[in-house]
Write a structure and sequence with these properties.
Pfam families: Glyco_hydro_65C, Glyco_hydro_65m, Glyco_hydro_65N
Largest sheet: 11 strands, antiparallel
Family: Belongs to the glycosyl hydrolase 65 family.
Number of domains: 2
Strand content: 25-35%
Structural class: alpha+beta
Organism: Companilactobacillus alimentarius DSM 20249
CATH architecture of the largest domain: Alpha/alpha barrel
Helix content: 25-40%
CATH class of the largest domain: Mainly Alpha
Number of helices: 19
Shape: globular
GO molecular function: carbohydrate binding; glycosyltransferase activity; hydrolase activity, hydrolyzing O-glycosyl compounds
InterPro entries: 6-hairpin_glycosidase_sf, 6hp_glycosidase-like_sf, Gal_mutarotase_sf_dom, GH65_N, Glyco_hydro_65_C, Glyco_hydro_65_M, Glyco_hydro_65_N, Malt_Pase/Glycosyl_Hdrlase
CATH topology of the largest domain: Glycosyltransferase
C-alpha cells in the first residue's frame, strides 16, 4: 500500500511526514484531522499559509444562507498563533527548513509539528503540539515551544480568536460581543444568521521560559470579528519559550447547559482547565481514548507489513473523532473534516459505518438510530409531499427535523455547459430501506427490546407504509413494481425495478408483517399504541395482499440479476481506464451523465451490494456469476464501492483480488492521490476498512439474525484478532493460519461456521481448526 503519510514499522499509531510539501498541505490537513465528535479542526498549521483550508466545525450547528440548503458553518479560528523572531514574521515559505516532521498520534489524537527554521543568521527550533480533548468535548489545547540555537532573540506572538472565516465565501455568523474576563480570558460571541444558534469561544494563554511561568499582562486588540492578545519576550540562546493556548467552544444547542448559562459555564470551565498544564490535560484525554474507544474496539493484525494495522487504526480513530455524542446529530459523509456535502448525513452511516458501532459500541449505534427516529416527522412530510404514505427518509439530512437537504443543482455538464439537476433527493429512495437494514442489524446483535418498542418498530413499520404506497401495479405482468428511481448505481437515473430497491422494499414489508404478528400475539399494548399512530389494522391487510406480488428481478440463464429493467440491453464498453480509487469520476472527461446512463457502466456496487447484505437470499453460483458480470463494469467512482468488492471477493475465495481491493480501499484517503481531499475524508470508506477486516477477512456476518464466523485470513497475515458485542456477551475472535479461537465473557453465544452450529458457554472458550472448505451452496426459490 502506498500512503500519503509515512508510517513506522514499530508504531502502528503513527502517521506523518518528514517533508514539507506546500502542494500537499490540504491533504495532510484532512488526513491528520483532530476531533472528538462534538468539535473538529483540520490539521492546518498554527501560522497561516496560502495553500491551507482552515475549517473548524461543531456537530449539528446547521445554518442556511438565502436560498441554499443548510450546512455546518465554518467557525472562528481559535488555532491561530502568529510568531515574529526579531521582527521577522515566521513562515514556512521563507527561510530554510531543516529536521521537518509533522505527525498525528492516532492513539491519543495529539498532533506534533516540529522543525528548525533558518533565517537571517538565526536558527530557531519550533515545536507545535495540540489536541482536542476526548474527556472534555468543549476543550482544545495547543502549545508552541521555541528555542534559539545560535543567538539571543526577541519573540513576539499574536494569538486569539479570528472570526474572519467563511464557508468558501458564505458568511453564516453574525458577530456578537467581545470582551476580556479577569484580564486574561478572551471571550467572543457569534450567532448563526438563519438558525439562530449561539456560539461562545473563550481563549486564555500562559507562557513560560524554561518552565517558569511568566506574568505577562494582556495587550488586547479588537478588530472587526477578531480579538487578539500580544506577547513580547526576550529569549536568550538555548532558553526554551513555551506558549500554551487554552480554548473552548460552547453552543446554545449543547443540551447539557441551559442557553442563558453558557457564557458563565464556559468561563468557569476555562478557569478550571487552566489550573492544569498541557501534559495533565492531555493525559486526561488519553485515558478517555483508551477506556471509551480502544479497549472496546480491539483489532490486531499480525503481518510483515504494518500498513493494514495502521489503516484500521486510522479508520477507528476517524470514526471516533467524527461521531457526535448527541443523538440529535449524525455522522456527515465527510464527518467534521471539511466542507464537502455541507456536513450532511447520507446512507453511508447505516450501511457502511453502522456495523462498526453495532458490534463495538452499541450505545453509539443506538444514538445514531435514534437520530433517524427523531427524523420521522420530516420523513413523513417528505413522503406526503411526494404523494406517498409513511416515512420516506431524506437522501441528505442535517438537523433531524429539517427533512430533505439535498441541493437541487450539482456540477456542470461537460456537454451542455449547464449545472446538472441533482435527482438523488427525489429518486434515490433506497435510503429508507437502508435505515431499516441498520435497525434490524442492531436488534439482531443487541436484542435491545426497549429500543425496539420505543423506536425501532415504529421506524420499520412507517418505512413499510412508504414502500407499500410506492408500489405500482403492472396490469400486463400482474405484479407490483417500483418505477422511476435511482439505485446505489447513481449513473442510472429514472430506472424501473432497480434490483437493490425492489428487493429491499420487499424485505422491509416482510419485516413489518412479522412485527405486526409478533406484537399482536405478545405485546398487544404496544401494538395498540402503534396502531393508533400508524393505522396498522388497515395497512396490514394491504401488506399481506401485495408482498408476494412485488416484482423481484430474477437471475437470467447466466445467473445474472438485472440491475434494472434495461441495464442488460445497453451497450458494453471497457471501463478499465475509468476505474478509480473512489470519487474521481474520470469517465466524465469523455461522457456526460446522460451518455453514461445509456451504457453498461456502474458507478459502485449495486447488485453486488444487495448480494453482500442479503447473502442468505442468493446461492454461491449467483454470487459468483454476478461478481464476474458486474465487477468489470464498475468504475468505483464512489468511495463506498471498493470495500464491498473486497468483502465479496474474500467470500468467493478470490484472495489476490480481495486483497487488491482491500489495499485500494485503504488508499481512498490515505493514498498518495490528491482527489477531493480539501472537502474532507470519506467517512463511509473508513467504516469500510473495519468492515473489510472484520466482516471480510474475519468472516463475521449476521445472516437472518444468526451470527456466522467464517474467516478468510490473507496469506500475508499471520493472525487477526478482533472483539465484538453479541447478545450481552463480549466475544473475542482470534484467527491464525491453523485455528479459530472464540473467547466469550458473558452469557455465551451460538454461531455458524461452515454450516455447522457451535455453542460457546458463558465465560468460556472454543477452538476450531481452520477449514479450507468452501461454503456449501444454498438453493433459493427466488433464484
Amino acid at each position: 500500500m502506498k500512503y500519503c503519510v509515512d508510517t513506522k514499522e514499530n508504531d502502528n499509531w503513527y502517521i506523518g511526514t518528514e517533508k514539507f510539501n506546500p502542494q500537499a498541505i490540504d491533504k495532510s490537513e484532512t488526513v491528520m484531522f483532530q476531533g472528538n465528535g462534538y468539535l473538529g479542526i483540520r490539521a492546518a498549521p498554527e501560522e497561516k499559509s496560502l495553500c491551507e483550508k482552515r475549517d473548524m466545525f461543531v456537530a449539528g450547528t446547521f445554518d442556511a444562507f438565502k436560498d441554499e440548503v443548510t450546512e455546518l458553518p465554518n467557525l472562528p479560528d481559535i488555532l491561530n498563533i502568529r510568531v515574529k523572531i526579531n521582527q521577522q514574521l515566521f513562515s514556512l515559505s521563507a527561510g530554510t527548513i531543516q529536521n521537518y516532521q509533522k505527525y498525528l498520534n492516532l492513539k491519543d489524537g495529539e498532533l506534533i509539528h516540529k522543525f528548525d527554521w533558518l533565517i537571517a543568521d538565526q536558527k530557531i527550533s519550533f515545536k507545535f503540539s495540540r489536541f482536542i480533548s476526548m474527556s472534555d468535548k468543549h476543550l482544545f489545547v495547543s502549545k508552541v515551544e521555541i528555542i534559539s540555537k545560535q543567538n539571543d532573540v526577541n519573540v513576539q506572538i499574536v494569538s486569539g480568536i479570528d472570526g474572519q472565516v467563511s464557508n468558501s465565501g458564505t458568511q453564516h455568523l453574525v458577530e456578537g460581543d467581545k470582551r476580556l474576563f479577569d484580564d486574561k480570558i478572551m471571550q467572543f460571541k457569534e450567532q448563526t444568521q438563519q438558525s439562530g444558534i449561539k456560539f461562545i469561544f473563550n481563549v486564555e494563554h500562559k507562557s513560560y521560559i524554561d518552565e517558569v511561568l511568566l506574568n505577562n499582562k494582556s495587550n488586547i486588540k479588537m478588530n472587526r470579528r477578531q480579538i487578539f492578545d500580544n506577547y513580547d519576550v526576550d529569549l536568550m540562546k538555548n532558553q526554551k519559550f513555551t506558549f500554551v493556548k487554552y480554548a473552548n467552544v460552547y453552543t446554545s444547542i449543547d443540551g447539557d447547559t441551559e442557553e442563558d448559562d453558557i457564557s458563565d459555564v464556559s468561563i468557569q470551565d476555562m478557569k478550571k482547565n487552566c489550573l492544569f498544564n498541557y501534559a495533565e490535560l492531555l493525559n486526561k484525554s488519553i485515558r478517555a481514548w483508551n477506556t471509551e474507544i480502544w479497549q472496546r474496539s480491539l483489532v490486531e493484525i499480525k503481518a510483515d507489513d504494518n500498513k493494514p494495522q495502521v489503516a484500521v487504526n486510522f479508520a477507528r480513530y476517524q470514526l471516533a473523532a467524527n461521531t457526535p455524542p448527541d443523538s440529535r446529530m449524525n455522522i456527515g459523509s465527510k464527518g467534521l473534516t471539511g466542507e464537502g456535502y455541507k456536513g450532511h448525513t447520507f446512507w453511508d452511516t447505516e450501511i457502511f459505518m453502522m456495523p462498526y458501532f453495532i458490534f463495538t459500541m452499541p450505545e453509539v449505534a443506538r444514538n445514531l438510530l435514534r437520530y433517524r427516529y427523531l427524523g420521522l416527522d420530516g420523513a413523513r412530510k417528505k413522503a406526503k409531499s411526494n404523494g406517498y404514505q409513511g416515512a420516506q427518509f431524506p437522501w441528505e439530512s442535517a438537523w433531524p427535523t429539517d427533512g430533505e437537504m439535498t441541493p437541487p443543482w450539482g456540477s456542470v455538464d461537460i456537454v451542455t455547459g449547464k449545472p446538472m439537476k441533482v435527482l438523488s433527493g427525489f429518486l434515490e429512495q433506497h435510503v429508507t430501506s437502508d435505515v431499516v437494514i441498520a435497525v434490524m442489524e442492531y436488534l439482531y446483535a443487541t436484542e435491545d427490546k426497549k429500543f425496539a418498542e420505543e423506536m425501532g418498530y415504529e421506524i420499520i413499520l412507517d418505512a413499510a407504509k412508504f414502500w407499500n404506497s410506492r408500489l405500482e401495479w403492472n396490469d400486463e405482468q400482474k405484479y407490483f413494481e417500483i418505477k422511476n428511481v435511482i439505485g446505489p448505481d447513481e449513473y442510472k437515473e429514472h430506472v424501473n425495478n432497480n434490483a437493490f430497491t425492489n428487493f429491499t422494499a420487499y424485505w422491509c414489508i416482510q419485516k413489518a408483517i412479522s412485527i405486526v404478528g409478533l406484537l399482536k400475539n405478545s405485546e398487544p399494548e404496544i401494538y395498540d399504541e402503534l396502531n393508533y399512530k400508524l393505522n396498522l389494522d388497515d395497512i396490514y391487510q394491504d401488506w399481506l395482499a401485495k408482498v408476494d406480488l412485488i416484482y423481484l428481478p430474477k437471475a437470467n440463464d447466466n445467473n445474472v440479476i438485472p440491475e434494472d429493467d434495461t441495464y442488460l440491453q445497453k451497450p458494453v464498453i471497457a471501463v478499465d481506464k475509468y476505474q478509480s480509487t473512489g470519487g474521481h469520476a474520470k469517465i466524465f472527461k469523455d461522457y456526460d451523465l446522460k451518455e453514461v446512463d445509456k451504457l453498461q457502466v456502474t458507478k459502485q456496487a449495486d447488485v453486488l451490494l444487495l448480494i453482500y447484505l442479503f447473502e442468505d437470499m442468493f446461492n454461491k453460483k449467483i454470487e459468483k456469476a454476478n461478481w464476474d458480470y458486474y465487477e468489470p463494469k464498475t468504475t468505483h467512482d464512489s468511495s463506498l464501492s471498493l470495500a464491498t468488492h473486497a468483502i465479496l471477493a474474500s467470500d468467493l475465495h478470490l484472495e489476490k483480488i480481495a486483497y487488491k481491493y482491500f489495499e485500494r480501499a485503504c488508499e481512498v484517503d490515505l493514498g498518495t492521490h490528491l482527489g477531493k481531499v480539501t472537502q474532507g475524508l470519506h467517512m463511509g470508506a473508513t467504516g469500510g476498512i473495519w468492515n473489510m477486516v472484520v466482516e471480510g477477512f474475519g468472516g463475521l456476518r449476521v445472516l437472518d439474525s444468526k451470527l456466522r464466523i467464517e474467516p478468510n485470513l490473507p496469506k500475508s497475515w499471520n493472525s487477526l484478532q478482533y472483539q465484538i458485542n453479541w447478545h450481552n456477551s463480549l466475544v473475542r475472535v482470534l484467527i491464525d493460519k491453523n485455528k479459530l479461537k472464540i473467547s466469550v465473557m458473558g452469557e455465551g453465544i451460538k454461531f455458524i461456521n461452515h454450516d455447522k452450529i457451535y455453542q460457546v458457554q458463558a465465560n468460556s472458550k472454543l477452538e476450531l481448526p481452520i477449514s479450507d472448505e468452501v461454503t456449501v451452496e444454498k438453493e433459493n426459490d427466488n433464484n
